[in-house]
Amino acid sequence: MATTTAEKPHGKASVSSNGGSSAAVAAKSATPLSVASGVAVAVRLVLLYYAAHNAYNIRMFAIRIYGTVIHEFDPWFNYRATDYLANNGWRAFFTWFDHQSWYPLGRPVGTTIYPGMQITSVVIWRILNEWLGYPMSLNDVCVYVPVWFGVSATLLLGALTYECSRSASAAVGAALVMAVIPAHLMRSVGGGYDNESVAVTAMCLVFYLWCRSLRSQTSWPVGALAGLAYVNMVAAWGGFVFVVNMIGAHCAALVLLGRYSTGLHRAYSLWYAIGTLGATRVPVVGLNPIRSLEQLAPGAVFAGLQLIELCEVIRRRKKLERVGAWKLRVQVFGVAGLAGLAACAALFSAGYFGPISSRVRGLFVKHTRTGNPLVDSVAEHQPASANAYWHYLHYTVYAAPLGLALSVVFKRTDASLFIALYAAFAYFFSSKMVRLIIFLGPVASALSGVALGFVVEATVPLLVDALLGDRGLIGGGGAAFDGGAAASSADGGGGHAGGGKTAAKAADGAATSSSSSKGGAKTKGSSSSKGASSSKGASSKKGGKSTAAQAADDDGLDDADIATEATESTVTHRSSSR
What we know:
Elements: H1 2-59, H2 61-66, H3 73-88, H4 90-94, E1 97-98, E2 107-108, H5 116-131, H6 138-165, H7 168-178, H8 182-185, H9 195-212, H10 222-236, H11 240-256, H12 262-279, H13 288-291, H14 296-318, H15 322-349, H16 358-361, H17 373-376, H18 386-393, H19 396-410, H20 414-432, H21 437-468, H22 476-481, H23 485-490, H24 502-523, H25 529-538, E3 541-542, E4 545-546, H26 547-554, H27 559-577
Antiparallel strand pairs: 1-2, 3-4
């Protein structure tokens, strides 16, 4: 009994020592995982840099061949307008009547141009020359603007893809595709100083910030940034009508699918209020956001969200049940609907609402029947053909549908629904007018990136396990490439289902078996009934584990610690029997 009592402190010390050994083993097993995760991040960064470099290099081809010259007619007029803004200032620019355009009638430039690109170019020119001290002519700035914004659009599209898929591999894949896809490249070549070269970047920024504002219930303030980016989009290109209706349709779809939340209400309200107020300050747009029929639908969504939030506030205060809440909604929307119909009827009779523009009307009727000869005569207003999709999208016509299916099936989030709706809307409108294939460029790249990311995350972990499994990296590399490195580390650094500790556990199991058999041989024939009873208590099962194993698990010990405790217990029982 004295021997047993004296050995108790030794047993505690042993447990403490084994606990430290367990921590060391866990840290050692986590090291390969962190290395694999670091390698994965480094590979993604290298590929992202390659995408940006490739986007810049391919758009510089015309500049390297022909020099810093402006191409085509529209880019030349845009340069003249930029030069006038730089030399005469803001106020003179918006009151400028150009007698050299539309001769002999002339053109009131300030009220017929989207000035976003000109303003952006002048700002960049002044920053380079006045703030940074880098001398560069306005002509050269205008030549390089499509190149710079082409690279920016590539990176922003990668960010949008990550927000919609939550996959870094998909984001990198989307950036690689966006860098070279012809649908975007045709409008962002160096020297092609046209509105689309800046507007596609602005559109990607608006879409990214909108999806980012829906990430969680606390991210709704990002909607204000989305509104500011939308103002820039409105100033840059008339395609802002697609953007405002795209976001409005996405919000309405979320409400219909039962995904309404206070965060959605706040994000959309901020975006619409700031964006609409800023859009009305663009002279060429004016009050069209609240008067044009093709822009009224997002306004109706805004009004509907306010009514829904009002119902939610009343429901929470009165603690209404489901039936009572639906009765309240019917009453509120009934009264508001009748008031809205009366107001619309009065405004229609007063001629407040303007007609649908001929270009938008051309999306729903045959392109030669809009009634506008200018629209009817342009070849790029014709419906798109299969050859046109192949010419501008190339292999993404096969990869994008796969990415769309993966987004709908496996990534059911607010942002993934946005990318699916974006694809559907862009395809529909591009099929009606071939020039709108430019809208398909970003979403086709994003969905192709989702498909590439899925393939990478499904194959790279298996490849890493096959090549480095015997070095203790089984599962670690896969977790890193899957974006699950942090979760795997929190679970003990084991990666997939045990990870790199498989071989160590097998060795510990063998040691345990050997120790048990040796202990049995030593005590055979010499153990007393008391020793047998003690051995029986030590080997009793609980939940498929021995009591010693369960206690070791509670103390954070591994199989090697269990084997050590079992051996020490055998020696103690032998001393007691003697």
